């Protein structure tokens, strides 16, 4: 098996898993539609021949021909079944056979959740998320060795630290039986002391690594076409407190909190970029960085945000990037200063149905915030500044891993990271 291909409990062949539900052909149509959206079909010089990009082998192509009134392909799937494969479906969409479109909207996801697949996948989410995390962390290079005892590999420390956040255990509890389980399965070389993991999460450089892994974990979305991104922020309480005085000089203790800013794909709930700031960090200042970070891996079309992000600088940045800003105006604004800003001002004031329906997708970022807090807690346990930032970014990465596992089961996407092409089908 290819080292870069993952093995999941339900198998890598979705047709075998779905033959009892009658969805095997629909899944092939979904994959063919993904190929079509990613511009993976090219018309050959011959009149009835097409070249279709392989989703599993870089640089490889399959040839689809129209012979005796039907399409034929030289792939193994067509040779075994003699029925239309995903490459044939991609050619049909390329040629404009709209009547053959599967039950998939423009965002590339099924309109209704397949609960049988969901229920079969849910018990395996943690183990599969660990496999995805191992693949993400495997590209991290260790610094040049120095004198003394060789340091622990960064990839192993990162894996152990993120999985500790995933299972929501304290450092002492995690470094016992839980970590021993990963040592037994040879995911890590040895059982690390809890102070080793705590010291690792206090490193300032770990935050940059986690943010890059969050971006990379969203890269399989690139094969699903252009995405709508919603931006928002929320607070997470910490274990530290600050002292303040009211007007009568009564001493009161108040729990500190830090702020998480995220950009979310509204269809899959995967976070495309994340930033952590102090509690007084302004929302509007984080929007350009979140969008530019998201565009490194994902194709964007619309950006949805609430009134906190309204302003001419943000509109100017988004329009220069070729994106449509769906941000409502604040009270008292006139809409002057930017052409798109003026259009959105009048559209929201007139309650344009199309604009409001697209703006309603912003509710998905609220859903993601709830998912993160519900699954991994709304409080960070670290006491140092960098430890709190890194722990919160680890929560976001854990959320993305969960979403990727479910997308793998429901869409047939096999995530491959740091390879130029963002994802492939099983």
Could you outline the blueprint of secondary structure elements for this entry?
Layout: H1 14-18, H2 24-37, E1 41-43, E2 49-53, E3 61-67, E4 70-73, H3 76-81, H4 86-94, H5 115-121, H6 125-137, H7 154-167, H8 171-184, H9 194-201, H10 204-217, E5 227-245, E6 251-265, E7 271-277, H11 287-295, E8 300-304, H12 312-320, E9 324-326, H13 339-349, H14 353-359, H15 363-376, H16 385-411, E10 413-415, E11 423-425
Description of the structure:
A five-stranded mixed beta sheet has the order 7-6-5-8-9, with helices on both faces. Strands 1-2-3-4 form a four-stranded antiparallel beta sheet, with helices on one face. Strands 10-11 form a two-stranded antiparallel sheet. Helix content is 42%, strand content 17%. The chain has helices at residues 14-18, 24-37, 76-81, 86-94, 115-121, 125-137, 154-167, 171-184, 194-201, 204-217, 287-295, 312-320, 339-349, 353-359, 363-376, 385-411; strands at residues 41-43, 49-53, 61-67, 70-73, 227-245, 251-265, 271-277, 300-304, 324-326, 413-415, 423-425. The protein is built from 16 helices and eleven strands. The model is unreliable at 1-23, 98-108 and 421-426 (pLDDT under 50). It is an alpha+beta fold and 426 residues long. Among the domains are: 15-104, no CATH class; 224-388, 2-Layer Sandwich (Nucleotidyltransferase, domain 5). Helix 6 packs antiparallel against helix 7, helix 8 (171-184) packs across helix 9 and helix 15 (363-376) crosses helix 16 (385-411).
């Amino acid at each position: 098996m290819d080292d870069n291909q993952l093995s999941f409990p339900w198998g890598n062949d979705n047709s075998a898993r779905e033959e009892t539900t009658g969805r095997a052909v629909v899944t092939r149509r979904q994959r063919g539609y993904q190929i079509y959206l990613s511009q993976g079909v090219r018309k050959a010089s011959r009149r009835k021949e097409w070249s279709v990009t392989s989703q599993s082998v870089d640089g490889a192509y399959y040839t689809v021909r129209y012979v005796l009134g039907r399409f034929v392909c030289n792939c193994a799937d067509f040779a075994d079944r003699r029925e239309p494969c995903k490459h044939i479906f991609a050619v049909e969409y390329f040629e404009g056979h709209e009547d053959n479109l599967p039950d998939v909207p423009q965002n590339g996801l099924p309109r209704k959740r397949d609960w049988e697949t969901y229920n079969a996948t849910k018990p395996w989410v943690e183990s599969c998320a660990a496999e995805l995390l191992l693949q993400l962390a495997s590209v991290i290079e260790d610094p040049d060795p120095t004198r003394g005892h060789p340091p622990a590999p960064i990839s192993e420390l990162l894996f152990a630290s993120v999985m500790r956040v995933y299972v929501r255990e304290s450092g002492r509890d995690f470094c016992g039986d839980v970590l021993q389980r990963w040592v037994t399965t040879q995911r890590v070389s040895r059982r690390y002391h809890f102070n080793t993991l705590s010291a690792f999460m206090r490193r300032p450089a770990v935050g940059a690594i986690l943010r890059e892994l969050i971006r990379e974990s969203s890269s399989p979305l690139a094969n699903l076409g252009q995405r709508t991104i919603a931006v928002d922020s929320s607070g997470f309480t910490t274990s530290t407190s600050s002292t303040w005085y009211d007007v009568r000089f009564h001493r009161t203790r108040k729990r500190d909190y830090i702020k998480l800013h995220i950009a979310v794909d509204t269809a899959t709930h995967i976070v495309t970029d994340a930033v952590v700031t102090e509690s007084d960090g302004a929302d509007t200042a984080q929007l350009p960085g979140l969008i530019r970070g998201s565009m490194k891996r994902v194709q964007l079309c619309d950006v949805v945000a609430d009134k906190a992000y309204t302003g001419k600088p943000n509109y100017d940045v988004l329009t220069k990037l070729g994106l449509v800003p769906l941000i409502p105006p604040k009270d008292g604004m006139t809409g002057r200063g930017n052409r798109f800003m003026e259009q959105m001002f009048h559209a929201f004031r007139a309650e344009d149905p199309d604009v409001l329906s697209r703006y309603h997708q912003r509710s998905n970022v609220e859903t993601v915030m709830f998912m993160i807090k519900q699954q991994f807690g709304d409080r960070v346990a670290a006491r140092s500044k960098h430890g709190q930032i890194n722990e919160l970014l680890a929560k976001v990465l854990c959320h993305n891993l969960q979403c990727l596992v479910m997308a793998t089961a429901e869409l047939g996407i096999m995530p491959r990271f740091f390879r130029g092409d963002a994802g492939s089908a099983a």
